């Protein structure tokens, strides 16, 4: 019985290594000083090279029909969003990696976000 349990656990461990995208890739998002409802700056930590970042507002009446909005690369791992209208979180963040894959952390920035707060999500 113990050997079957061990074999099952080993199989699950191997499967999780072979299919990492089942749970997404971990990332952290730090809201930078200066962010407010008309300017948003985020420091993204992700184990990979990011070539583009976009943001989608989930609940904003201004966001209808806008879909993913591009952020501009500021410096290092910091990206800025400077929209023409006020924003209304939660925000989903989409990154494009070096291979061109688009990965999304859905609603990773909550409605009550705070400056310097770090939010964790999985990019899938």
UniProtKB/TrEMBL annotation:
Keywords: Secreted, Signal. Residues 1-24 form the signal peptide. The keyword Transmembrane does not apply. InterPro entries: Expansin_CBD, Expansin_CBD_sf, LolPI. Residues 47-121 form the Expansin-like CBD domain. It is found in: Secreted. Transmembrane segments: none annotated. GO terms for cellular component: extracellular region. It holds the Pfam family Expansin_C. PANTHER family: EXPANSIN-B3 (PTHR31692:SF5). This is Expansin B1. It comes from Rhynchospora pubera.
């Amino acid at each position: 019985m113990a050997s079957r349990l061990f074999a099952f656990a080993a199989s699950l461990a191997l499967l999780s290594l072979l299919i990492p995208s089942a749970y997404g890739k971990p990332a952290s998002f730090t809201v930078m000083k200066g962010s407010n409802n008309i300017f948003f700056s985020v420091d993204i930590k992700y184990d990979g090279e990011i070539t583009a970042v976009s943001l989608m507002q989930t609940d904003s009446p201004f966001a209808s029909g806008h879909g993913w909005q591009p952020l501009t690369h500021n410096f290092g791992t910091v990206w800025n969003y400077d929209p023409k209208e006020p924003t209304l979180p939660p925000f989903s963040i989409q990154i494009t990696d070096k291979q061109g894959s688009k990965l999304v952390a859905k609603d990773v920035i909550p409605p009550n976000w705070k400056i310097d707060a770090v939010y964790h999500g999985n990019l899938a």
